[in-house]
Amino acid sequence: MTVRFRLLGDVGAQVRGEPIMIGYGQLRSMLAVLLVEANQVVSVDQLVDRIWSERRLPRKPRAAVQHSMTMLRNALAPAEGVTIARRSTGYQLTVEPETVDLHRFRRLVDDGRAAADDSRAATLLEEALRLWGGEPFAGLTTAWLDSLRATLIQHRHAVRLELVDVQLRHLARPEHTALLLPDLAEWADQNPLDERLAGQLMLALYRSGRPADALDHYQQMRKRLAEELGTDPSPPLQRLHEQILVTDPALTVPRRPRIAVPQQLPARPRLFSGRARELAELDAALGQDTVVITAVGGLGGMGKTWLASQWAHRNLDRFPDGQLYVNLRGFDPTGQPMPAATAVRGFLDALGVAPSAVPTGVDAQAGLYRSLVAGRKMLIFLDNAADSAQVAPLVPGSSTCVVLVTSRRHLSGLVAAHGARVLNLDRLTDEEARRLLATHLGEDRLAAEPGVTAELLTCCAGLPLAISIVAARATAHPDFPLSALAGELREQSELLDALDAGEDLVSLRAVFSWSYHALSAEAAAVFGAVGIAPGADIGLPAVASLTALPLARARACLRELEQAHLVGQHAPGRYRMHDLVKLYAAERAHRDTAAFERVVDFYAHTAYAADRTLAPLRHPIAIGVPAEGAVPLEFEDDTAAAQWLTTELPNLLAAQKLAAEQGLYAPVWYVAWSLDTFFRRRGTYHDGLTTWRAAVAAADRTNDRDAQVMTRRHLGNECGGLGLHSEGLPLLHGALTISEETGDLPGQAHAHHMLASLWQGRGDYGRALQHSVPALRLFQDVGLPVQEARAHAQVGWDHAQLGMYEQARTHCEAALTSARRHRDREVEADALDTLGYVAHHTGDLSQALDHYRRALALFREIGHDYIEANILERLGHTHHALGHHDLARTAWLQAIELYRAQRRAKDAADLRQLLDGQSTPSRRRDEC
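Structure tokens predicted for BTAD domain-containing putative transcriptional regulator (928 residues):
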């Protein structure tokens, strides 16, 4: 937004970051009244009453109001979209409410109170409170403004109390709670009679391991209330005091488990029937002393996943430590089986491993996975495996785990190497098949036409998938006799007999065709399109773009397909097909190049929009307009953007691959660029490496010189993040050389900036400075202020690490000013971190604490947990230097926990040594 109005502090306005001169106090009072009542008509009488007291009432009040309005209109002329209009009874200032800090504050508070979880609520309430820059309407004095000011201050106090309640619920670890104490104690001193605040401070002290201090604060509060108000503490405060005295467990927030308890099983089959013998065999497999592996085999459509899911849900109590599930897509008609490495990565995510803590190598990832499940009573459900080689890396070594595998192939390698038991599924018996059909259609309907029922079951050949599809067709027409449906199926079967060459599709093609030809023309087209879509599943907006249909019509078609059991909605708005159905759908699809372009553009442009939401100040690339019919999504906030990227990541990677295969090269690097911020904040540099390597390959297939330079630059940067300096340096130097030859100054600046980062990663700050300084100069020359701020922060850090503290402070203060002007939280946090480092090393320890705390809050806000751990360690050193040994210990313990979660074993061990008093760790300079 280019316009900002401030009421929570000095009343004022800014346009594109530059202040507007409003003039004298009376005019600012007039603006304040209009902004408080934004988009509402304020009568002239109300304006006069709110701005002038009776003693200072002007001789001609209405003329004074009119004159003030003229001056305000002139002052606000540069503010686009802001108008002051004369109405019949008064004046109305029209403005976007979000541009007025008071209205934004109220909206954020309302959203925070309505948030579904404490983390989101805390984020919103903190953002609301940050809008306050002092007393509302500072310097303005009228009776109305004074009254409103007092009300707003009380409101702010109440919101702060709500935020603390949320934080006390949300912060499970004692060391986290301890970080609230300094501010809580200061605030309690300023409000000595606020019993709710006293209770919050007592609870925080207790949870931080300081129950004696909590009890002492209660006694101080009790004495103060008696002396000043002649009362006793309120019943809630007395109750809290008693709970602390008896160490009531209810006061302790349950500690979050170090490892998550995943619950990934597919939904329990709704109409399961039969398979009693097979279920008993699976039960018998339990109780062995070694890891239990059962491989369920059989033809496609035989009900392997159906059986395994039913058994798993019946035995949930045997797996209290969680259930992992993955569809290995061993027979996916649209692509290769899932690599075991991808499955391991998914399991590590489900087990709560921070993305930045995932090792780069596949073997290391598998080792970490096995160590996490060792000794835990878990079910590992590996569905639709291609072969034994795909399964082997996913088999844990712990005898406490049960592994359940389904596959269409006999997994002899798994039997030989791991002693797996094999359970081969045959077709349902006639009785089981009839019973399953009866669960769908009802016994009465089958009994009415026994001969026709037998014919339908013969056509289904005992395959549960075929029976469910036939049942769906019959359920869609409950008034039709089964004989009419059987006649249609008989006709389709005769037409497709010649096509039934594949073992898996024996009888199924006829069933699929029967259902397919019963679809409306539009639903049939959607069916074929989904069959060739990239990825294992697809969301409704992607289907709409793929088919160039409005959302409502796409949803209606998917509902029709769902009712026919041709797609399943496994999550709200997300659909997938059985792989045999998808194979048939792909056969029926029109190979429409335009459809490929639309779906690729949907993913690429939506990912781009998500990145612009996560990092709106990032220097953009030219991405053009999406193909006609593709309708990319937009996002309201960071949370929505990150959630979409997390959900759609497999499909984005599949869309990038499809784009390369179809010769749509530009979207390949669009996707890589759009995932860059997301990967960096998660610490998943190896994922970035893969996408940028694909982008470089695509750019090299074109004559787009800019794309070739840009993709090489980013690939070099990813290599630097992974320590692949021998690969990254030539790429970055090559990009720099090309940019110099073509006179591309922004390209030169970005290349220098990334080279500086690479040398920082190697700990060579002298070499880093040789690139960060030219990057800063070039960003200044080409007029890119946001990138200039980042470069200032980078130069400042290099200087600080070289002991050049004055130069570091100068650059970081410049970065800080610019970052706050542009609302760049990441650069602001970087600059504050370095300023904290400089203040610590120049003896201003109090200032260092302040800088580190602010940096820590910002990095947590944007999800940079890797850097959060580093700052906590530095914060601990500053506390220790000040003699705050308890606070230092708290910060270091928290840092150690994050280091361990991130698999930074040496960092954790070094800091543990310091805590144990064994030695002073030799830390890398960029981490102290």
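The first strand starts at residue 3 and ends at 6.
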